[in-house]
Design a protein that fits this description.
By secondary structure, this protein is mostly beta strands. The protein contains 2 helices and 11 strands, in the order βββββββββββαα. The protein has a 6-stranded antiparallel β-sheet, with no helix packed on it. Strands 8-7-10 form a 3-stranded antiparallel β-sheet. Strands 1-2 form a two-stranded antiparallel sheet. The structure holds manganese (II) ion. Manganese (II) ion (MN) binds next to loops.
Length: 145
C-alpha cells in the first residue's frame, strides 16, 4: 500500500479533518489520518498541522506519542521542558506527561504523530493543575488553555 503525497502536505484520498470534535482549548489545527492501523501493528499514523499562532490542546493521558516534525518548526511543551523542535526532529511524549504544541513562527508547524489505536481519552488541566504548571515561569508564559 502506498499513500501518495499529492503536494503541500496533503495525501491522496485522505480527508482533512478537524483536530478534535469540539472545544476551544485548541486553535488553528487540522488532522489527517494517513494509516488507520494494521492487524499486527495496532497504531495510527496521523499528520497534524498547526497554522501560525495556533496550538494543540494542553493535555496528558496514559498513551504515548511518537512525533516527527515534517514541516516548519515550533515550540513543544513536554512535562516541564519547552523544546524548540525543527524539521526532522523526533519527540517522545511519555505517559501522563503534560504536552502542548505551538506554531510560534509565521509559517505552519506540521508533524507526524504515531499513537496506539486503543487509547485513553486525554485529560485537560484542572485549575489546581494549571496553578502547579504556572509555578515554572517559562511554562506559565508558554501554555495556552
Ligand atoms: Mn496528546
Amino acid at each position: 500500500m502506498l499513500v501518495r503525497h499529492t503536494g503541500d502536505f496533503r495525501w491522496e484520498n485522505v480527508p482533512l479533518l478537524a483536530y478534535k470534535e469540539e472545544g476551544s482549548h485548541f486553535k488553528n489545527i487540522s488532522r489527517q489520518v494517513l494509516c488507520e492501523g494494521l492487524a499486527d501493528l495496532s497504531c495510527q499514523l496521523r499528520y497534524f498541522e498547526i497554522l501560525p499562532g495556533g496550538h494543540s490542546t494542553l493535555e496528558h493521558h496514559h498513551h504515548v506519542h511518537l512525533v516527527v516534525i515534517l514541516r516548519g518548526d515550533g515550540d513543544v511543551l513536554i512535562g516541564d521542558e519547552i523544546y524548540h523542535a525543527r524539521e526532522n526532529d523526533v519527540l517522545v511524549i511519555p505517559p501522563q506527561t503534560w504536552h502542548q504544541f505551538r506554531a510560534t513562527a509565521d509559517y505552519p508547524l506540521g508533524f507526524l504523530c504515531i499513537v496506539n489505536t486503543e487509547r485513553d481519552r486525554p485529560t485537560r488541566p484542572s485549575e489546581a493543575d494549571l496553578e502547579l504548571l504556572r509555578q515554572n515561569p517559562e511554562v506559565a508564559s508558554f501554555i495556552r488553555s
